[in-house]
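Tutorial handout. Part one gives the primary structure; part two gives the three-dimensional structure as tokens.
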Amino acid sequence: MLKHLRATFRCKVIPATQRGGTLSSVYLVSYVAFGGPTLVAGLLIPTIGLQNMVYGYAAFIVVLSVIALLLLLRSRTKRIKSSTAAGQ
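Part two.
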């Protein structure tokens, strides 16, 4: 991820006056992405228990990973089909 951020800053895609705000936004999204599920888990543990919360969280991560993999494969096949069609 840092490689892409450095490349973005080096390519002058983001003006120098906006780089601090952009990096702050990246960190904010990262903290929310990791902190949100933790807060939800903390609220659900008294209701469903720690062990069930861990199983549910693990299942949720597996489902999200499978969805991401399927979207990646679909995107890749579309890219391959468009490049072969353009090459013909």
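Part three, for discussion. The mean pLDDT is 84. The chain has three helices and no strands.
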